[in-house]
Specification:
This protein has 190 residues and is α+β, with helices and mostly antiparallel strands. Helix content is 30%, strand content 26%. The chain contains 6 helices and 6 strands, in the order E-H-H-H-E-E-H-E-E-H-E-H. The strands form 2 sheets. Strands 1-6-2-3 form a 4-stranded antiparallel sheet. Strands 4-5 form a two-stranded antiparallel sheet. Strand 2 (80-89) and strand 3 form a beta hairpin. The model has no long low-confidence stretch (mean pLDDT 84).
Length: 190
């Protein structure tokens, strides 16, 4: 039998597996669920900065929602979002369904990506760098380009990112929370 030649190297960096995380939500419904929870607890929704996990997961579905809320993946990610919008013109009654996609290669926090938080981030746009104003700003600009005065009825979003967990401990924490709470999603995928 041949003797093993490889020696153990404690400083060797082991590449972690990269997982695909997704989060889906309907914007108005998520906002309503979170605001209702804060109002029922006597907190002003505009001033509240913390939303409990069970409320957050009722408003947002998917692994990314759980991973961001439990802080088991790095906070700064490169995101891709697809938004399916159903809008109605109140004057004519005409309805329109549009899809809007946006991706960034620049890593940033979720709230900076969505545009809810002021950020001094510049992204590449056709060879030029421009200040990032957020997904909400880009969506409004896109909707203004559509002729007519439309009111958004529903806005279903799907946010995706590819990431590894911060550590093996964080991965086990994520999987245990997912197993203990079957309403967060079946299985231990990720």
């Amino acid at each position: 039998m041949k003797k093993r030649n490889k020696k153990y190297n404690p400083k060797q960096i082991i590449k972690q597996k990269v997982h695909k995380f997704q989060m889906t939500w309907e914007v108005n419904e998520a906002k309503r669920i979170i605001e209702l929870h804060h109002l029922m607890n006597g907190v002003d929704p505009q001033e509240s900065i913390h939303t409990p996990l069970h409320v957050w997961m009722r408003a947002h579905k998917g692994d990314l929602a759980l991973a961001l809320k439990t802080q088991t993946i790095p906070a700064e990610q490169s995101y891709h979002i697809v938004s399916r919008i159903h809008a109605v013109n109140d004057e004519t009654g005409e309805a329109v369904d549009v899809e809007f996609q946006l991706a960034t290669a620049t890593p940033m926090h979720l709230w900076q990506f969505l545009g809810d938080e002021e950020a001094d981030i510049y992204v590449e746009d056709g060879g030029f760098k421009k200040k990032w104003l957020g997904f909400n700003h880009e969506l409004e600009k896109y909707l203004n380009s559509i002729e007519g005065d439309y009111r958004i009825v529903t806005n279903h979003c799907c946010l995706t990112c590819f990431s590894s967990f911060k550590s093996f401990k964080h991965e086990m924490e994520f999987k245990s929370i997912k197993l203990i709470n079957p309403e967060l999603g079946l299985g231990v995928a990720a």
